[in-house]
Automatic annotation (TrEMBL):
SMART domains: MR_MLE. Its cofactor is a divalent metal cation. Gene3D superfamilies: Enolase-like C-terminal domain, Enolase-like, N-terminal domain. This is o-succinylbenzoate synthase. It comes from the Bacteria. The lineage of its organism: Bacteria, Bacillati, Bacillota, Bacilli, Bacillales. Its EC number is 4.2.1.113. One of its GO terms (molecular function) is O-succinylbenzoate synthase activity. Belongs to the mandelate racemase/muconate lactonizing enzyme family. MenC type 2 subfamily. It catalyses: (1R,6R)-6-hydroxy-2-succinyl-cyclohexa-2,4-diene-1-carboxylate = 2-succinylbenzoate + H2O.
């Protein structure tokens, strides 16, 4: 494939509802949609999912934009690629910056699928025609408000409910949730808000028959999670700690988790997600695909990766309308009774609607082979 141009569409999207975690409250999403254009004028799309600030991980959208503009987009327009799996190796001299790498790689994957008349799900090797979906609920000011939100989402048919916890909003709150909803598939996500000093508190969560406790300890930690998992009946699911294939391998070997939340951006793209998928499958570690409050393009990428067989637990690919008054794709993603149908159209399976996107657009940066700086390696 020859990609002649990368376009970075920088957007700012107002969220329909504020989203509160142990990091704080978020009301807007700063997103970059990556467009890779081939010599025939065909476009593939990816989404960079870095946060507004380096709270979830070290990356943030301003840093990711520089990384994509200065390093990763130029590498794509200056090289001929025969398969998107080659992109990871092309980017390898530059460390980390996984969400920036993944945004660009995602656009190459979509373009590759379209050039070959395949769905993105087929291109990544997935076989499902529909995927199960859960929902991630932020912290609310009161337990009553949270219970109302859960009821609404249970009524909409979501297949599991994830509730955020943080110190001071944990065991008693989850006790009330369980008392009101004794049978729902329920999990909690701490976003790294605890330490091993909180072991008794975390053990108290065992009584609630949770599907999993997501990322209770520090982002990046593998060792303490292994100690904690030995003390808990509830499976630990790692999110922030799994930032590479190597981290997944270490966590599996040390027994740091029994479940992995794969976020395509966090691990550096689809190729790395597939590697982690295959490794986890070999070790009977089930997966699910976590969300980063994506716009439609990222959501469709998540759906495609979820079609791989070891994504056996419901992911975060809720309906577009959960996040946005108006998404940037047509048709939007719709979950019905907790199930999303995988599109049978080529690539991501929906059109990026430029008229809609225009409303959120801050700027478009265009990188062409002629303008891109030559890569200089200082070694
Ligand atoms: O619905 C979604 O997209 C998932 C939202 C969600 O839970 C998260 C999004 C972004 C960063 C984190 O706060 C968090 C997570 O840890 O999974
Ligand atoms: Mg999480």
């Amino acid at each position: 494939m020859k990609i002649k141009e990368i376009r970075l569409h920088e957007l700012e999207m107002e969220m329909k509802n504020p989203f509160t975690t142990s990091f704080g409250t978020q009301t807007k999403r700063h997103i970059t949609i990556v467009e890779a254009v081939n010599t025939d004028g065909l476009s593939g799309f990816g989404e960079c999912v870095a946060g507004e600030d380096p709270l979830y991980s070290e990356e943030f959208m301003d840093s990711a934009l520089i990384a994509m503009n200065k390093y990763f987009a130029p590498l794509i327009v200056q090289n001929e690629i025969s398969h998107p799996d080659e992109v990871w190796d092309l980017f390898a001299p530059f460390k980390k910056n996984n969400m920036a790498k993944s945004g660009i790689e995602g656009a190459v994957w979509d373009l590759y699928a379209k050039e070959n008349g395949m769905t993105l799900a087929e291109a990544v090797g997935g076989g499902k025609t529909e995927v199960d979906v859960g929902i991630s609920l932020g912290l609310e000011d009161t337990d009553e408000l949270l219970l109302e939100k859960i009821q609404e989402k249970v009524d909409e048919g979501y297949k599991r409910i994830k509730v955020k916890i943080k110190p001071g909003r944990d065991v008693p709150m989850i006790r009330r949730v369980r008392a009101n909803f004794p049978d729902i598939p329920l999990m909690v996500d701490a976003n790294s808000a605890y330490t091993l000093d909180d072991i008794e508190l975390l053990k108290a969560l065992d009584e609630f028959d949770l599907m999993m406790i997501e990322q209770p300890l520090a982002a990046g930690d593998i060792v303490d999670h292994a100690k904690l998992q030995k003390e808990l009946k509830t499976p630990i699911c790692l999110d922030e700690s799994i930032d590479s294939f190597q981290a997944a391998a270490a966590a599996i070997e040390l027994g740091s988790c029994e479940i992995i939340n794969v976020k395509v951006g966090r691990v550096g793209g689809i190729t790395q997600s597939k590697r982690i998928h295959d490794l986890a499958a070999k070790h009977d570690i089930p997966l699910w695909c976590g969300g980063m409050l994506e716009a439609g393009v990222g959501r469709l990428h998540n759906i495609a990766i979820t079609t791989l067989s070891n994504f056996t637990l419901p992911g975060d690919t809720a309906s577009s309308s959960r996040y946005w008054e108006e998404d940037i794709i047509t048709p939007e993603v719709v979950a019905e009774q907790g199930v999303v149908q995988v599109s049978d159209k080529p690539g991501i399976g929906a059109e990026v609607d430029f008229t809609k996107m225009e409303k959120y657009l801050k700027q478009t940066i265009i990188i062409t082979e002629e303008d891109a700086p030559d890569m200089v390696f200082f070694n």
